[in-house]
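Reopening closed ticket. The problem is back. First fold of the pair:
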Amino acid sequence: MSQLALIIKTKCQPGKRDEVRRLWDEYLKPRALTNTDQEVIVYSYDLQDENTFYLFEIYSSQQAFEASSKAPWFWDYMKAAGAMLDGQPEVMMANPVFTKGVITS
């Protein structure tokens, strides 16, 4: 099975980025730390736009990503954070073919 890489760009309402991050830490970070199918996750703040953040994730497979995206705790996070977002996140999917400093299968 091929791994799946996600690049997610999320814009927040002005001044809400840190609050959204706190919700991510509460709802999603504990799951990411224990989910062996979520092999890599990088949460980054945009340096030019104080209301934008990015997630880079590598899942062991498309099926592993789909299972996470359907989990009730993911939707609990989206319900809590939704009003603080500025539109829908941009989600790009890719097949990783080279990484450095990252263990991949």
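Second fold of the pair, where the issue appears:
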Amino acid sequence: MIRSLVGFVVAMVIPMGLMAQPSSYPTKWSAAIAERPDVKAALAVLERNFPKHVEEWIRIAEMQGKSGHEQERGAYLARMMKAEGLVVTTDSIGNVVGRAPTRSNGPTIVFAAHLDIVHPLGTDLRVQRQGDTLRAPGIFDNSASVANMLAMIRALRAARVQTKANFVFIGTTQEEVGLRGMDYWLEHNPKPDLLIGMDGGLGPINYGALGIYWSRYHFAAAGSHTVTSRGKPTPVKALADAVARIYALQFPALPNGAVANIGQVHGGVIFNGIPQELHFTMDLRSPNPTLLDSLDREIDQAVNLAATKEGVTWRKEVVQKNRAGGTEEMLRPARSHPIVQTAVDVHDFLGIDIGPPERKTQATGSTDANMGVVRGIPSISIGRAFGGNQHTLSEWAHWPSALPATKMVLLLGVALSDGETRFPNQTP
């Protein structure tokens, strides 16, 4: 199994017994799909081209791509899509969209891989190759998925794979700052039938949406020189009190509860004075929309009490509010959609071990697929490779695992397409 090969396990904590587990779920997978001549040919293309796939992955990873500055990566993706016969457009937020030129009346399946990385412009992105490991900021999240998507497109075209579905491939922007690119695309285009987010490690299939609220809480006062500061209101004490109150809040843990984290504290410009303004950031997450809103209000109340007690003013700046998809219990119908079990079955077919049966799926997620989940579109996120330390300078990826990951998404797309139209319309 691949997991034993790399010794990397994506842990899950979905509690057993939370809901009745049916003995089986509907699936569109059959091993016969992999035996189709066109599909076998596509898989062979992926294997034959894998060294070039890895080279392209490295090339993409070394392009700057901070959220909002994905232009170099987007231009490259557009060129490569056009070279494979796709109809390519770039929208006003920078999303690069490639469509197969087909006249099929079948379903529309969106494959989304975000172009952006979290690292600031100017970060050294040079990739170090050490045996089976690639090391560089952004190498795993999400340069890997962009390369996998291009490899899939090339294999489908080279093998003239038959699909009834219309495949739409999107390199989304600003995923790391609130899934903005995917949100924008879904707001300005017809609703697709299915959405597959290519983002994450090779682990459980995510079919839910972790609600994410980001806020900044600002405190202000008149300030004072240190010499005359005694007894005067200070934003420092208010902020400290608010932080203590927030961390004293009691609530259940993920996966069905919540998590809250204060990631930044800023303010003050000199040693010898009461700062006139301070702020901290709040990252609040939960799949439960009721709990998410309730905790958001409790945090507001904690801040208000702290500010009032100290005699300073405060204000809240809402940075983003990504809705929650629901708990496991709330998402029973979503779990029963064939897109979820088909993905599980394809992983099993390829020998990609994603855990025991009760842990192969989870009703959460923090990817572009969230934007589909909250709109009622059957959506999942799937992995790109094995790797870790994402969002750090020590990020790494196990490059051999990108091959089965790409085979998986290709087989998944074919299984879900359930049809006969050539992809894309090319003369033999």
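Update: turned out to be a display glitch only; the data is intact. The domain at 2-209+325-417 is CATH 3.40.630.10 (Aminopeptidase). Confidence is low (pLDDT under 50) at residues 1-20, 419-428. Please close again.
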